[in-house]
Amino acid sequence: MGNRADFYTNYFYIKKHSGVCFHLLINGWGGTLKPYDEEVIKKLDIIAVKIRRHVIEMLYRAKSGHPGGSLSAVDAIVALYFHHMNDNPKKPEDPDRDRFILSKGHAAPTLYAVLAECGYFDVKELKRLREINSILQGHPVSFHIPGVEASTGSLGHGLSFANGIALAGKADKKKYNVYVMLGDGETDEGQIWEAAAVASHYRLDNLTALLDRNFLQIDGNTEDVLRLESVYDRWSSFGWHVREIDGHDIDQILDALQMADDHKNQPTMIILNTVKGKGVSFMENNVDFHGVPPNEMEYKLAMSEFDMLLRKLEEAS
Ligand SMILES: Cc1ncc(C[n+]2csc(CCOP(=O)(O)OP(=O)(O)O)c2C)c(N)n1
Ligand SMILES: [Mg+2]
């Protein structure tokens, strides 16, 4: 555990340090170099596996929760908190912080694991997911958990909430950015499209939405339940700047986030092409693991898969 703690401490330093480098590149030298390199990507890949491990441990212990949509969301949330966002776990109420809102609140275990590993609260709390009197309930509650910006879980509201914070940022002449993650099934909600229209009407270029496009929702393929395609054309016709990437490729995620921050006069939608259950072979693309935790055998199998992958990644780094 000591090694892991050191690893995160060091990584947190790299995150902040690379932010400074980026500032110099843009403001000092004006170059086009990326504010990260292969080493950063390798480290984020390793963190992502460790977060997935936490998620499965938490769900197994709690005997309930949502593995599929938690696992598909990991890489983007890791990229945001461990590299991209300007946030400080020691000052979770800093008025100048970047904000992240997990609109698909059922992926709470991923957000909790990331916040804990960043230092917002003790990693030991993760063991108490869904227990009575635990701060970590099945869906995020903002007034209980340091670092959680919005209480979510009732799908469809997060983008409207993010709009409000982004508008307030403009009114107050703040420099912060707002990031919000939506599920693809979640975008069946009508409120999402009211919010999409509002964001482009007010030219909220300080707002970036990330769509976890895993093609599955609670009980089937999104295209069978209520067709979404063409997702790209829909968001673009609502006045959004849209980019579509591999949602498990850290390099592409970091690049898209930077592009979104730099884009002016429009909100940006990053479509993350993802795999529901990513990282656990028998959960991948398996709708049965939308809201069912692993049993003992599945838990052990998942752990052995993570161990194998971690060994491979650590040897390569
Ligand atoms: C308003 C509302 N209706 C229904 C639900 C129940 N529900 C929880 S998850 C889910 C499916 C969400 O699918 P998607 O957004 O694609 O999530 P992911 O695939 O990322 O898990 C549903 C319908 C809910 N949480 N809120
Ligand atoms: Mg989905």
Describe the protein.
The chain is α/β, with parallel strands linked by helices and 317 residues long. It has one domain (2-316): Thiamin diphosphate (ThDP)-binding fold, Pyr/PP domains (Rossmann fold, 3-Layer(aba) Sandwich), CATH 3.40.50. 48% of the residues lie in helices and 9% in strands. It contains 11 helices and 5 strands. The chain has helices spanning 2-29, 38-62, 67-72, 74-84, 108-118, 158-171, 190-201, 222-225, 231-237, 250-262, 296-316; strands spanning 99-102, 178-183, 207-213, 241-246, 268-273. The protein has a 5-stranded parallel β-sheet with strand order 1-2-3-5-4, with helices on both faces. Helix 7 (190-201) links the parallel strand 2 and strand 3. Helix 2 (38-62) packs across helix 4 (74-84), helix 2 (38-62) packs across helix 5 (108-118) and helix 4 (74-84) packs across helix 10 (250-262). The chain starts with a helix and ends with a helix. Mean pLDDT is 91; it is low at 1-33.
List keywords for this structure.
317 residues, alpha/beta, Rossmann fold, 11 helices, binds thiamine diphosphate, binds magnesium ion
How much of the sequence is in beta strands?
5-15%
What is the count of structural domains? Answer: 1
Spell out the helices and strands N to C.
Answer: HHHHEHHEHEHHEHEH
Distance between the termini: 19 Å
Query: What does the overall shape look like?
Result: globular
CATH homology superfamily: Thiamin diphosphate (ThDP)-binding fold, Pyr/PP domains
- Work out the oligomeric state of the chains in this entry: single chain
How many β-strand stretches?
5
Largest sheet: 5 strands, parallel
Q: Unreliable stretches, pLDDT < 50, 5 or more residues?
A: 1-33
Give the structural class. alpha/beta
Q: Which CATH class is shown?
A: Alpha Beta
Query: Main sheet: which strands, in order across?
Result: 1-2-3-5-4
Tally of individual helices: 11
Helix content: 40-55%
Ligand identities? thiamine diphosphate, magnesium ion
The average pLDDT value, as a whole number, equals: 91
Q: Which fold name corresponds to the CATH topology?
A: Rossmann fold
Radius of gyration over all CA atoms, rounded: 18 Å
